[in-house]
Amino acid sequence: MKQYLELCRRVIDSGEWVENMRTAKRCLSVINADLEYDVSEGLLPVLTTKKLYWKSAIAEMLGYLRGYTSAADFRKIGCNTWNANANDNAAWLANPFRKGVDDMGRCYGAQGRDWRNPEGEPIDQLQNLYDDLRQGIDNRSEIMTFMNPGERDRACLNSCMHTHTFSILGGKLYLTSYQRSDDLPLGHGFNQVQVGWLLMIMAQITGLKPARAFHKIVNAHIYEDQLELLRDVQLKRTPLPLPKLEINPNIKTLRDLETWVTPDDFRLVNYKHHPAIKYEFAV
User: Fold this and answer.
1) In total, how many domains does the chain have?
2) Is residue 27 among the annotated active site residues?
3) Tens digits of per-residue pLDDT, 119-146?
């Protein structure tokens, strides 16, 4: 997509070098970026300048919505993105709150489905906003956040795309997603798909029409060992038309998402793309 490629060029042209303490790698960084995706006609904002494994992106978000906190559960639904952070992250391996192999701790799904109030009682953020949206209610607080400052030390990774705010206007559903950290060559493609998919699937199970998703990024960056491939390969490719996402019409409720839905319940029509690019992953 054009706006993604423009953001990549902006980072290359005007970004500043930063030494990332967590990964011990240098990266080019800029602060603040805003992307917008119109999904009203079913077009999924998937990258076309490289092959994207979009089903894995959907599987990951599906795992978040189910409250998964184990990399093993993500693997079962076709997502391997949590293996390294759960099992190869030195700081997390030494963390006394880690429960063992594949444990991710209190990030993402743990917060979205099992937030704890001061009395230790569970708050199911997703269920609450789903119940409101299904009734056409928008109290301007239809928010699900995966970021809990009080439990950041209990997670293998601070949630990157951390907050999703839903809004209803004229019978249409909108989504604003906030991301604190964005690995442009590698992670962004997943996140972009997840924003679009989350709006589409929430619209379907609440009986609303999907409109636009707004993707707000705080820190957009390119790691030093990704720069050459991005600049000399991906940015020289011509974007192709966006494909349309077909969703199994039998998915009608949140309970369906929690129980039987798999990535195979989604199909991309006419997804044409350039060859895959293997970027380095920073743990």
Assistant:
1) 1
2) no
3) 999 999 999 999 999 999 999 999 999 9
